[in-house]
Amino acid sequence: MAILSSLRQASSLIKNAAKGAQCMALVRQMGSHGPAKMIITPSRWQWHKFKDMFHFYAMIGLIPLGSLVFLSNVLVGPATLTPIPEGYRPKEWEHYSHPIQRFFARYIYTSHQQDYEKYLHFMYEENEKKQMRLLETKVKEVMAERGDSQAYYYRPAMIKYHRRARENTEFLKDTIGD
Description:
The protein has 178 residues and is an all-alpha fold. Among the domains are: 63-80 and 89-109, no CATH class; 114-176, no CATH class. It has five helices and no strands. It has helices at 2-19, 45-76, 99-107, 112-146, 159-176.
């Protein structure tokens, strides 16, 4: 490239000399249209990289999901109402008409009965905590009223440890004797 541009300059000098014109200064033309300026701008590499990655991952997700929805609508289609046979009890997910809704109801979401039973278990646990707090406050009140306990405060303990300790002492009494 450098050789061609230098030859171009030399050829223009020869032409001008042959015409007899005086050459005051040589101006090198680079890209003939517009000003010959190089404007420094911030790089747009990050923006282009973000767009490329966003389109790539969007297409990775959208193409399979779109084809799955399309095929489920075309091949399976919505459910139709039919009479229920004698002795058959429909499952909970069979009440939904769209196949994708049926899939989510069967494998992902919890049923209403399971939600209700989880709520009942939560209420049972909270009731047990409440009863333990009431019993603890009653024990503390009685201890403060009578003042006949050896401990300075009440520490709740699990009953299974008391049972084990009692079994161990009984075992030792039986084996060693009194």
